[in-house]
Design brief:
two-stranded antiparallel sheet, single chain, 21% strand, 11 strands
Length: 188
Amino acid sequence: MAEKQYGMLIYTGRCVGCQTCVVGCKILHECPGGVYLGRLETVGSEENYHVQGTYPNVSVTFRPHLCNHCANPLCVANCPTGAMAKRDEDGIVESDPNVCIGCGTCVQACPYGAPVLDEERGIVRKCDLCRPRIEQGEEPLCVASCPAEARVYGLVGDPSDELAALVAERGGEVLLPEEGTEPSVYYC
């Protein structure tokens, strides 16, 4: 069990679908071609940016995705080399590129689709919650760069932390709770 657990609350009603979080993450982590460590979906549609309803009552709701930094990550449990690991000091789940063999077992195990195969480098990559930025006292880039302020980052389960208070107050819900992974990313 991690000493503390970083996580995030995402306000889907505030997200405007601009993908600043997705593009910023891709650039920061120098991901090649089609490798993205985060993604955006349109809630209720297989097609992104699909507007629902009929004029004048139309709506579109976006849901950004990133690694859920689970308390019980299936990617870690299924990694055959130990490359995928959960840090005890902060609960961040990350992949060690020096140990990863690019087999994709973690990709198949994750119910959230967070790990992605970087075929160019022959390894699996995933959101590390911008650990280097956190260690320098900064927010993850997706939080800091969101023009709609749709993301709040902090400590899960710490009642003195803004994130924990907002999750309780706003009724933040996790995706796929039936998987038993105990995700640390909440949506409201």
